[in-house]
Amino acid sequence: MTTSDKELKQYRKYFSKELHEDILPYWIKYGVEKNGHGFYGAADLDGNPVLTANKTSVLNARILWTFSAAAMLDRNEEYAAMANKAYKVVTEDFEDKEYGGYFMELTSDNKVANDIKHTYAQAFVIYSLCKYYEFRPDASVLDSIKSLFTLLEEKTKDPSDIGYLESFTRDWKIYGENRMADNNEPKSMNTHLHVLEAWAALYKVWKDPVVELRLTEMLNLFLDKIIRKDGHFGIFFDEKFNEADASKGTCSFGHEIEGSWLLWEAAEILGNKEIIERLRPVAIKMVDTIERVALDKDGGLFLESTRFGSHLKTNKHWWQQAETLVGFMNAYELTSDVKYWNTVKLSWNFIDTCLIDHKRGEWFTKLNRMGEPYLIEPADDPSPYYRNDWKIDPWKCPYHNGRAMMELIKRIDRMAGE
Question: Which long-range contacts (CB under 8 A, 24 or more apart) does 372-375 make?
């Protein structure tokens, strides 16, 4: 059973309006420095810049990816200008010209504030540069991408075991504090999910046999080691990719629903029929698992569970709601089962009703279970990671919700025969 083209096209209008009349204009208006050449590190709920906030390579790479993708979707001159600006900022301000790679943080006046090289952040730079190259296929951009890939292969890939190590000093010595893996384990699901994302984007623009091999390895790593038998992701791992004991009782729902479609996208880009057939039931199982244990009745996605599911954290973070839309839309495309489309509609209604700030623009950062936004930053935040009282911060970016709108638009166009 499928839904009608008429209904799909109606929802396409909703998603297009949110992208072009809210998300992207918000970042053009409030994200760009008035007295500088880049982007603010943070802005409050009213869009006022937090001038003391540091800037991160992750946020700037995500701005680059978003506006490059938007400029390809809609040949809007403002989107193109934002993509060009972000490209200059990432490659001129954040690149370490001495040791290679990209700095994690700069001060508000562009001095190095944190020179640790996180594999996670380097992967996001490759991901964004690949999208910019799709938008502006200049040979010098591709050369930069190739050089960064070669560097990461040399410095971050584990020479003894599968996968990539988490973090390094500026001159690429192993750094013991693996801040992208909260418990400081040597390897994490989150880093590898975004390495997979980067390698898929890279293989899309550069059919290099080594990239093909690494993307194949990443997909098999998820299928063999990271995805648990119950459809959840393992989170933290030792050097040989055995899940750490401290990780086994925890589920990160946002990463799982995001991963369900990113893995499928990567498999399609790779074009390996064996992996595609192996992954298809797994991707659907992941979505079904999320629907069963992590999706509230209002369509909002819970944050996570701990203690083997007995402790559910019911706050609903902005980025996870965006990924819920794409994950269930992907499942609908794969199966034509209208139940997945109905979840897309339910989740969109929750986002539109509760999460979008229709007065001031963009999306609130976090909501409680009842769909009420947190607007102040408490001393002891029960649901950390990003500030409740900021609309822009090192992690609050246009990439999740902007990408979700673009994915939905493209998928509806594909399904409705546009």
Answer: 374/315, 375/45
Closest CA to 298 of 354, 341, 248: 354
Q: How far apart are the first and last CA of the chain?
A: 20
Beta strands 236-237 and 187-188 are antiparallel
pLDDT digit string, tens, across residues 9-32 = 999 999 999 999 999 999 999 999
157-172: per-residue pLDDT in tens? 999 999 999 999 999 9
Can you give the pTM of this predicted structure? 0.97
Exposure class string for 151-177: b at 16+ Cβ within 10 A, else e:
bbeebbbeeeebbbbbbbebebeebee
pLDDT at residue 251 tops 60: yes
